[in-house]
């Protein structure tokens, strides 16, 4: 007589892998999710039983997540390999969640100065060998709606076209925009081309009813703002 059962003894529609394929991961229980991460059980003990033991030992899926490597290894059926698999998967989840939280905080940011705009966009532009032109969109309360790169390469009036610039702003329902780009040379001083690009965008914005509130140029040691220089 068979002393124990494995996942393979379950009807096909009830097996975790098949249930995830058919219904998606959100349909699975914590026990089933852990079983899929662990992969297989040990002799005489199916993976579903080990998953349930983990939940019983730590109280919940959150308890498993916060458990140390040593604590996980103390559970019968969870050796070094399974414990490290669990910690690796859970760390991926933690990092992804932390990134989403940082992005949410960034997305809710209110920008009221050129320094705010610089802090918002510098991570998108610093350290590149080519010029990148980015459009920052804002609502009527100066809340950040999103950033879009519309051009990469040596900037000129034909490369940075009002059509692409305002297309992303319209898509985000922007009240106004701030444009920004980097100078790989490191000197943030506006060039004649930068001035011409800005002039054309300001004119187009007036026609479309979307104000160009600033043009920020980022160099190695800081930035230059057309608004601060009263060039807008």
Key descriptive features of the protein:
5-stranded mixed β-sheet, DNA polymerase, domain 1, 9 helices, Cytidine Deaminase, domain 2, elongated, 5 strands, 232 residues, alpha+beta
- What would you give as the CATH superfamily of the largest domain? Cytidine Deaminase, domain 2
Radius of gyration: 27 Å
Give the domain tally: 2
Number of strands: 5
Quaternary organization: single chain
Strands of the widest sheet, in order across it, are 2-1-3-4-5
State the CATH class of the largest domain.
Answer: Alpha Beta
List the helices and strands and how they pair.
Blueprint: H1 16-23, H2 30-38, H3 47-58, H4 61-66, H5 69-73, H6 80-107, H7 114-125, E1 132-138, E2 144-152, H8 162-171, E3 176-182, H9 192-208, E4 211-218, E5 223-225
Parallel strand pairs: 3-4
Antiparallel strand pairs: 1-2, 1-3, 4-5
Helix pairs in contact: 2-3
């Amino acid at each position: 007589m068979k002393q124990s059962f494995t996942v393979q003894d379950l009807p096909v529609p009830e097996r975790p892998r098949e249930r995830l394929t058919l219904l998606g991961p959100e349909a699975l229980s914590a026990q089933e999710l852990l079983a899929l991460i662990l992969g297989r059980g040990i002799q005489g003990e199916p993976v579903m039983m080990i998953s349930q033991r983990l939940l019983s030992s730590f109280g919940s899926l959150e308890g498993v997540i916060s458990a140390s490597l040593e604590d996980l290894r103390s559970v019968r059926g969870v050796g070094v390999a399974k414990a490290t698999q669990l910690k690796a998967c859970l760390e991926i989840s933690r990092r992804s969640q932390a990134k989403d939280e940082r992005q949410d905080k960034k997305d809710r940011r209110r920008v009221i100065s050129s320094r705010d705009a610089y802090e918002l966009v510098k991570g998108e532009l610093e350290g590149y060998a080519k010029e990148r032109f980015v459009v920052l969109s804002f609502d009527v309360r100066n809340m950040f709606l999103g950033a879009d790169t519309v051009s990469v390469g040596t900037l000129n009036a034909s490369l940075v076209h009002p059509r692409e610039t305002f297309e992303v702003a319209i898509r985000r329902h922007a009240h106004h925009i701030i444009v920004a780009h980097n100078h790989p040379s490191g000197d943030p001083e506006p060039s004649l081309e930068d001035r011409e690009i800005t002039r054309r965008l300001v004119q187009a914005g007036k026609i479309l009813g979307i104000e160009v509130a600033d043009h920020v140029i980022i160099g190695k040691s800081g930035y230059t703002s057309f608004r601060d220089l009263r060039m807008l």
